[in-house]
Amino acid sequence: MARPREFDEAKVLELAVEHFWERGYEATSIRDLAQAMGLTTASVYNAFGDKRAVYRRALDFYIERSFGDRVGRFESKPPLLAVKAFFDEIIDRSLSDVKRKGCMLVNSALEVAPHDEEFQRVVAEVLVQVEGFFRRCVDRGQEDGTISNRQAASDLAGTLLSTLLGIRVLARTRPERKLLEGLIKPVLGLLEPVGSSRLEWAVP
């Protein structure tokens, strides 16, 4: 009979996320992971598998705790406010990231996905989901008149996705509020109906 695990799986995955997120995939060894997770290397192998398997579990955990949680909180807001709230939080998180770790998903897209077909699919699927969130917001806003219909919803959703990725990458080297907010302001301008009052960023 298998022995029950003597650790909190969510907690050790959170620790694995933090280590991969800060150090990256290639610079992390299974021994590093075991130490970071507070486990023996044998326990890591037995519970999760090799380094690649741990990374996949950690990435899934990160995605659910970040994007999944954020969409759940914002999608019920009015469409234009949902988009703004999404970017408000992204910028605040980027500015409070003292270690400049960036976004683990974006980091994975740059470091791991180019060399691994499975991770290419994982990252692509999540980016499609992010774009889908933006598309749903735009669709709803164009239907109720709170978002301009001068551009196709699909084009606006793609622009929002590319702006998000740009913010996350740029913030790793230039975490400046004025700069990051300046990237999204013109995009919000594209969303706003003609004659509407401009949405302003809250003063921190």
From TrEMBL:
It comes from the Bacteria. It holds the Pfam family TetR_C_13. Keywords: DNA-binding, Transcription, Transcription regulation. The keyword DNA-binding applies. The keyword Secreted does not apply. Residues 29-48 bind DNA. Residues 6-66 form the HTH tetR-type domain. This is TetR/AcrR family transcriptional regulator.
